[in-house]
């Protein structure tokens, strides 16, 4: 991607911010546009060599080939819908335990007709601009062994757009709302029995909000929890790998920029398609750290993020600077907790996971080397192994259970 393209993006960002502020904040808008341009230029540099040697048509064909051949995100379960307190329909899928090989099967057979206790259910919550399919590897490894629920956060994936956010009187999305959404999913998909909560990034924040909103549910039913690349607060201090002055300028006006862009969805989506290489560079920079990421996995991450409309990106962004759930974390104090992060995560740095672990001193802290924000896709074996250990600790699966492959060979419809 050329420097001109990056500069055009910066200019567009400045103009959008200027429009969002009625033209009165043009100086800050220009500063932010310049800072965004620096970021865009960094991504452009990442694809410059490829552009010198590979034509646009060839790159497009390669993306199409990866889309058709890659199995990622193809796993499906039994669908269901929960209704949030504002009427938003939340989509989820359940993978049930294999009655012959799943955890607890021998014990259930010994009950001789008596009603078996409800099995442990593992509820997976995904992150910002992703969907339940971001857990592909963990889902492939655990399916049939333990009952799992995967759901799409409001306005993401197959869930409906947030009802409370629609119309001129729409209210901003809050992490507290997401916690209430998770409660609705649990009530519908896992109304009884013990629960293990697993959340990546925003999904982990959703779990914290649930604990703040329904501490009795966590104390009574949650037997284990895993926070993957998440944060309990102070996200306004994250630099995203940018110079401090640049990121501060961006932070001041980015909500206005996103709001303006969100009001021109069709135009922005066309721009996304036209600058696919630039977005691929940005996504790779902020999703992964290792240089040898499977191209099909990288393309899968692109598809997940590209699938989030720009107005949804704009709706959710302000919630993160307001997020502070440190006071809710002690609700998880009495259960086994896994806290895991990539050591080179630029979105929710590993120091944020260390802060969570400090508030939960009995938790297991795992920092995965050479890993970025999408650690569950970049190093699935590390994440799945630690999750399996947690599930053994809470009795969700027997100690001898072999979680098998991590999903890299899963076929569509399997």
TrEMBL record:
The alphabetical list of record keywords is: Hydrolase, Membrane, Transmembrane, Transmembrane helix
Q: Which residues form the AB hydrolase-1 domain?
A: 122-385
Q: Which GO terms describe its molecular function?
A: hydrolase activity
Q: Where are the transmembrane segments?
A: 28-49
Q: Which InterPro entries match?
A: AB_hydrolase, AB_hydrolase_1, AB_hydrolase_fold
What is the name of the protein in this document? Alpha/beta hydrolase
Taxonomic source organism: Streptomyces niveus (Streptomyces spheroides)
């Amino acid at each position: 991607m050329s420097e001109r393209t990056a500069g055009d993006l910066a200019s567009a960002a400045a103009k959008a911010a200027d429009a969002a502020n009625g033209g009165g904040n043009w100086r800050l808008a220009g500063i932010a546009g310049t800072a965004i341009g620096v970021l865009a230029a960094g991504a452009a540099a990442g694809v410059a060599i490829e552009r010198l040697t590979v034509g646009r048509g060839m790159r497009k064909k390669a993306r199409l080939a990866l889309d058709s051949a890659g199995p990622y995100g193809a796993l499906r379960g039994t669908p269901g819908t929960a209704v949030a307190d504002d009427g938003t329909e939340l989509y989820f899928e359940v993978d049930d335990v294999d009655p012959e090989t799943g955890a607890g099967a021998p014990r259930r057979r010994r009950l001789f007709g008596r009603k078996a206790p409800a099995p442990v259910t593992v509820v997976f919550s995904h992150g910002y601009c992703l969907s339940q399919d971001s857990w592909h590897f963990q889902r492939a490894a655990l399916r049939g062994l333990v009952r799992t629920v995967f759901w799409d956060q409001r306005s993401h994936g197959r869930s409906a757009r947030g009802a409370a956010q629609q119309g001129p009187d729409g209210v901003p999305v809050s992490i507290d709302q997401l916690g209430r959404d998770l409660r609705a999913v649990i009530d519908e998909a896992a109304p009884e029995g013990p629960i293990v909560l697993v959340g990546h990034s925003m999904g982990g924040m959703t779990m914290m909000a649930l604990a703040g909103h329904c501490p009795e549910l966590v104390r009574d039913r949650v037997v284990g929890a895993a926070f993957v690349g998440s944060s309990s607060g102070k996200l306004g201090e994250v630099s995203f790998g940018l110079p401090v002055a640049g990121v501060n300028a961006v932070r001041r006006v980015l909500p206005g920029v996103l709001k303006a862009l969100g009001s021109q969805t069709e135009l922005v989506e066309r721009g996304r398609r036209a600058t696919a290489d630039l977005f691929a560079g940005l996504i790779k920079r902020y999703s992964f750290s290792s240089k040898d990421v499977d191209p099909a996995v990288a393309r899968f991450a692109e598809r997940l993020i590209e699938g989030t409309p720009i107005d949804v990106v704009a709706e959710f962004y302000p919630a993160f600077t307001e997020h502070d759930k440190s006071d809710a974390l002690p609700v998880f104090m009495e259960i086994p907790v896994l806290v895991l992060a990539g050591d080179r995560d630029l979105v929710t740095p590993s120091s944020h996971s260390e802060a969570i672990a400090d508030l939960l001193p009995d938790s297991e802290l795992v920092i995965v080397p050479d890993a970025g924000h999408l650690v569950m896709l970049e190093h699935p074996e590390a994440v799945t192994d630690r999750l399996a250990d947690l599930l053994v600790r809470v009795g969700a699966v027997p100690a001898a259970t072999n979680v098998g492959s991590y999903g890299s060979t899963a076929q569509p419809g399997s």
